[in-house]
């Protein structure tokens, strides 16, 4: 045990010995310093140092006993060779902690995966009574009541759809299928779902499609269009929403332009942030701040660039700029 202790303190002992030798050399060189006095000083220093080592050894012995016991209990063949027992025990503790964290991470990942599956299952289950509700609403004769119920039904439907896509986004790369998407069919399908809401607010659509199809994923592109149209209808009153497609600089573009309340210039850079709603209409409790955030995440996977132009009180224009054809070779190879 004492051998281990002295080996651990060998650097200190060498330093002390070197200082004593230096003191003797100084006494030999400098005639004004008596050699006998220096020898007496060195002798006393050595005695004090030995006493100090003995006291420290008694105090630190339990630590080294613990190290020896730890080495006896553990299989050190799996632990990298270290310079000292102290380093080996530290490495062992770090290794144990890392293993514990890995197990905890695996457990949490499994729990989150289970929670996601349960939520997706719940959303699909809710869609069944929601479909039944829509059929019941369609049979109502009272137009005013029918319109109000349809609007509330649509809000629930859109929120469920948003939640469903939010849970699927982390795995979007596994779900992409790039194909020629017919814009007219996609747009009319999304407009049809918003029909009752648009009629209630007196909103129409002016559609002019110069580009009839684009290369993209129809399901995820439909979600992006749905969010843009929903926002356009939500923040507009009794106006037409213009939807146009065209080619610019060799790229296909799809533009959605409304004449609604517009976006404050200070908010434009933040509209795609998670949870951000508005600084001008901050009291709007109906806004979730998730629609454009999810849109931004999806458009990145589809290599789509979104340009936003808006004037407060005059309306907003969202332009989807689709990638060139050769850019999809990366997506198809995923």
TrEMBL record:
One Gene Ontology term from the biological process aspect of the record: cellular response to phosphate starvation
Catalysed reactions, as listed in the record: ATP + protein L-histidine = ADP + protein N-phospho-L-histidine
Main location: membrane
PANTHER family: HISTIDINE KINASE, PHOSPHATE REGULON SENSOR PROTEIN PHOR
Gene Ontology cellular component annotations, sorted alphabetically: plasma membrane
Membrane-topology descriptor: Multi-pass membrane protein
Record keywords, A-Z: ATP-binding, Cell membrane, Kinase, Membrane, Nucleotide-binding, Phosphoprotein, Transferase, Transmembrane, Transmembrane helix, Two-component regulatory system
Compartment annotation: Cell membrane
Top-level taxon of the source organism: Bacteria
EC number: 2.7.13.3
Histidine kinase domain ranges (all copies): 121-326
Organism annotation: Halobacillus litoralis
Protein's name according to its UniProt entry: histidine kinase
Xref: SMART domains: HATPase_c
Enzyme class, spelled out: transferase
Parts of the chain that traverse the membrane: 12-33, 39-57
GO terms assigned for molecular function: ATP binding; phosphoprotein phosphatase activity; phosphorelay sensor kinase activity
């Amino acid at each position: 045990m004492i051998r281990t202790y002295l080996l651990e303190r060998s650097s200190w002992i060498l330093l002390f010995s070197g200082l004593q030798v230096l003191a003797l050399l100084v006494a030999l060189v400098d005639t004004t310093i008596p050699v006998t006095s220096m020898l007496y000083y060195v002798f006393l220093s050595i005695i004090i140092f030995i006493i100090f080592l003995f006291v420290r050894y008694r105090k630190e012995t339990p630590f080294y006993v613990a190290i020896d016991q730890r080495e006896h209990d553990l299989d050190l063949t799996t632990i990298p060779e270290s310079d000292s027992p102290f380093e080996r025990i530290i490495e062992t503790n770090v290794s144990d902690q890392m293993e514990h964290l890995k197990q905890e991470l695996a457990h949490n990942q499994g729990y989150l995966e289970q929670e996601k599956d349960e939520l997706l299952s719940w959303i699909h289950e809710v869609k069944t009574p929601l479909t039944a509700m829509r059929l019941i609403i369609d049979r109502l004769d009272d137009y005013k009541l029918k319109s109000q119920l349809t609007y509330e039904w649509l809000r629930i439907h859109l929120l469920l759809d948003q939640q469903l896509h939010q849970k699927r986004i982390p795995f979007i790369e596994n779900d992409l299928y790039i194909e020629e998407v017919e814009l007219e069919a996609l747009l009319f399908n999304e407009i049809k779902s918003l029909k009752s809401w648009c009629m209630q607010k007196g909103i129409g659509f002016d559609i002019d499609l110069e580009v009839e199809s684009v290369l993209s994923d129809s399901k995820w592109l439909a979600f992006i269009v749905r969010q843009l149209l929903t926002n356009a209808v939500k923040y507009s009153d009794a106006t037409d929403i213009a939807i146009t497609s065209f080619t610019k600089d060799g790229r296909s573009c799809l533009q959605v332009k409304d004449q609604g309340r517009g976006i404050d210039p200070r908010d434009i850079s933040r509209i795609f942030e998670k949870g951000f709603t508005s600084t001008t209409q901050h009291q709007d409790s109906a806004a979730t701040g998730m629609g454009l955030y999810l849109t931004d995440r999806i458009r990145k996977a589809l290599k789509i660039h979104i340009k936003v132009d808006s004037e407060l009180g005059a309306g907003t224009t969202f332009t989807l700029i689709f990638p060139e054809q050769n850019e999809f070779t990366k997506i198809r190879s995923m």
